[in-house]
Design a protein that fits this description.
This protein is mainly beta and 107 residues long. Helix content is 7%, strand content 59%. Strands 1, 2, 3, 4, 5, 6 and 7 form a 7-stranded antiparallel β-sheet that branches. Strand 1 and strand 2 form a beta hairpin. It is elongated and about 40 Å long.
């Protein structure tokens, strides 16, 4: 139990910080600004977006990552990034069914 508490605590200290994107309707465009300034990251160099759940239908995350949902989905998108604020963008490309969670990680 203590190990788990330490793991959760370290999620927003030191070099790595994470935030969950709020729940939203997968059939509508969605954007959310996530503020990581309270994490005290000294220098952000990468962002990652973890997408997991069950989904049927295609959509875009960010402006260029296309997801083709055909059932269970679990992936991690990583790219260079240099800010402690992150603008999450989602756009369906037709009908999307299912439930997904999105987590953004800065390091």
């Amino acid at each position: 139990m203590l190990f788990l508490f330490g793991l959760v605590l370290s999620a927003c200290t030191g070099k790595v910080c994470e935030r969950h994107v709020s729940s939203f309707d997968l059939n509508n465009n969605y954007k959310e600004e996530l503020d990581f300034s309270a994490c005290g990251l000294k220098q952000v160099t990468y962002h990652s977006i973890r997408i997991s759940g069950e989904v049927y239908g295609d959509f875009l995350v960010g402006e260029s990552f296309k997801v083709e949902g055909k059932g269970h989905y679990d992936t991690l998108i990583t790219a260079e990034y240099y800010s402690d604020r992150f603008n999450f963008y989602y756009r369906p490309l037709g009908e999307v069914k299912g439930e997904l969670t999105f987590k953004v990680i800065l390091e």
